[in-house]
Amino acid sequence: MKGPGLGFLDKILEWAVTLSFMVMIIVVMIQIIARYALPWSPHWTEELARFCFIYMVSLGAGLAIKDRAYVNVTTFLNKFTGKTRFYLDSSILIGILVLMLFMLIYSIPLLKIVSLQNSAALQINMALIYCSMTGMSLFVMLYSLVQLKANFKKFNQPL
Amino acid sequence: MTILLFVVFLLLLLLGFPIAFALGLSSFVFILFSDLPLIVIPQKMYAGIDVFVLLAIPGFILAGNLMNASGITNRIINFCNAILGHIRGGLGLANVGASMLFGGISGTAIADTASIGSVMIPAMKKEGYDTDFSCAVTATSSTLGPIIPPSLPMIIAATLTGLSVGKLFIAGIIPGLLLGVGLMLTTYVISVKRKYPKSKRMPFWLMAKSFYQAFWAIMMTLIILFGIIGGVFTPTEASIVAVIYAMVIGLLVYRELKLVMIPKIILQSAKMTASLMVLVGFANLFAWIMTVEEIPQLIAENLLDFTQNKFLLLFLINLLLIFVGAFMETIAALLILFPVLLGVALHVGVDPVQFAMIMVMNLVIGLTTPPVGVCLFVASSIGQISLERISKAGLPFLLISLLVLLLVTYIPEVSLWLPGLFYD
C-alpha cells in the first residue's frame, strides 16, 4: 500500500538511493576481487561501502514512510474506523514528526563536533557523513507531513 | 523512572506506532525527563547503523528479491513436488521442502510465506486440501527461513555481540533440518489421517530436469555457506557475491530477469533495508539508555536471584521469549532482549552461539502464533480465511516447533556440533 508522494523529490531520492546501493555493491566487489586478483588491496573499500550504506538508509527512510514499509502492530489499530482511526493515524504521524524534529535540531551541534575529524581511510570530513542523519530526519519529516495532509484531506471529504 | 521507558514504549506499540518510532519516541520521552543530552538521538542512530556486518542485510534482501524475480519460487516448488509429490500429502510435503530450500536464499520468514504461499495455497486448495491446513503448513514452514542460513536475525545477533556470523549461520543448519523433517512428518501423518491426495510418481527424466532447474538456487546457498566457512569472503562480501550470482542466473540462465527490472528491484530492497535500519538505529538508542540505567544487570540479577538452576532458567527465558515473540517483530525483540538475556545465559554456562539459536527460534515461533504472527496474517490473506482457523490448524505444527526448540535449548550439540567442526 502506497501513500502520496512528493513528485520530483521522490524521483531524486529514488535515484540517489539506487545509486548508493549500486556503488556499495561495486565497492564490495572491488574489495573481493582485489584480495584475490590484484597484488594490492585498496584500504578504502570497507569505509566507502559503509558510507554508501548509511546514505542509502538515510535517504530511503523517508521513502519508506511513503511506502508504509515500517512494521507496526495493527491488531488494536484495525479495530477502529472513522473518527477514532483518523485521530490515531494522525497522532502516530505527529509523534514521528516531533521525534524527527528533535533529531534534526540536535544533529546540527553533532555536525559541529564531528567536523573536527576526518574519516580514517578516505580522509573525508566526518560532518559530510553525519549530515546523513540531518537528511534522514528531514526526509522522514517531509513524508510524514505529506501523509498527515492526505489523512486530513481524506477525513474532510464528504462520504 | 526506568519504568517510564517501557510503559511509553508498550503504549505506543499497542496504539499502532511503527516499532522503530515507538522505540525512538519512548527513548526521547525518557531523555526529556532525565539528565541525558538530546544529542544522543542522532548520535546513537548513526552509531547503530555504522557497522560493516549490517551491509550483509541489504545484500541478502536484494539477492532474494532478484532470485524471486527470476522465477526461482516456481522452480523450487516444481523440484520439491517432483521428488515428494507421489507420497500421501505430497503437495504439503513439497510446501515444507520448498521452504527449506527457499530459506537458503531469503533470510526472512515473511518473504517465504508470501512467495511460496501465493503459489502453494491455491494449488493445495485445488487438489482438495483444507484451506486452513494449507495456510498453516505455509506459515509454519516459512519460519525455517530465518533458521536456515543465510538469516537476517543471525546477522543482527552477531552485530550485537561480536559473535561470528559464519558460526551462527552454521549453527542454524541442524535445527533447521530437524524442524523441516519434523514439519514434514506432521504433514504426512495428518495427510494420511485425512486422506489428502498424492500424485503419480514422476518419470526420472522429469525429476532430473526439475533438479537442474532448482540446482542454481541450491548452489547459491552452498556458495554463501562454503565461502564464509572457508574464509574466502566475509558475510558482507558473501551477500554481495550472492547478488551478482542472482543477477547472472536470472539474466543468463533462467532469462526471466530483465536488465530494466534491476533498478526497481534495487530500490525496493533499499527501502526495505532503510525501514529495518531505522529500527536498528532507534533500538541502539533504546539499548544504550537501558545500559546507562543498568537495566540489563537489574533483570539479570533478579532472574539469577530467583534461580541459578540452568534448566529452570532456560525454561523461564523460553517462556518469556515465546510471549514476547507473540507480540513483537523478531528483529526488534532481538535488538532489545538479546544483550539483556545473554548475560544471564553466560552466567549459567550456556554457549553464546547456542543462546543466539534459542533466541531466534523462540522469536520465529512467535511469527506463527496469535495475536501478532505476521506469517499468519500473510497466509490468511492469501487463503482468505480467519486467523482463528489458521491458528487452530497450526497447533500440531506449533507443538513440533516447540519440541525442536526444547532440543535446541537442552542439547547444546544440536546447535554447536556443526560449527565446532569448522571453527576453533
Q: What layout of secondary structure does this protein have?
A:
The complex is a heterodimer of chains A (159) and B (424).
Chain A: H1 8-37, H2 45-66, H3 82-114, H4 126-156
Chain B: H1 2-15, H2 19-32, H3 40-49, H4 56-69, H5 72-84, H6 90-103, H7 109-126, H8 131-141, H9 152-161, H10 165-171, H11 173-194, H12 204-229, H13 235-253, H14 262-292, H15 295-306, H16 310-327, H17 330-347, H18 352-365, H19 374-383, H20 387-393, H21 395-410, H22 412-422
Helix pairs in contact in B: 1-2, 2-14, 3-14, 4-13, 4-14, 5-6, 5-12, 6-7, 6-8, 6-11, 7-8, 7-19, 8-19, 8-20, 9-17, 10-22, 11-21, 12-13, 14-17, 15-17, 16-17, 16-18, 17-18, 18-21, 21-22
Please give a handful of descriptors for the protein shown.
heterodimer; A: 159 residues; mainly alpha; 4 helices; 0% strand; elongated; B: 424 residues; 22 helices
Give a brief outline of the structure.
The complex is a heterodimer of chains A (159) and B (424). Chain A is an all-alpha fold.
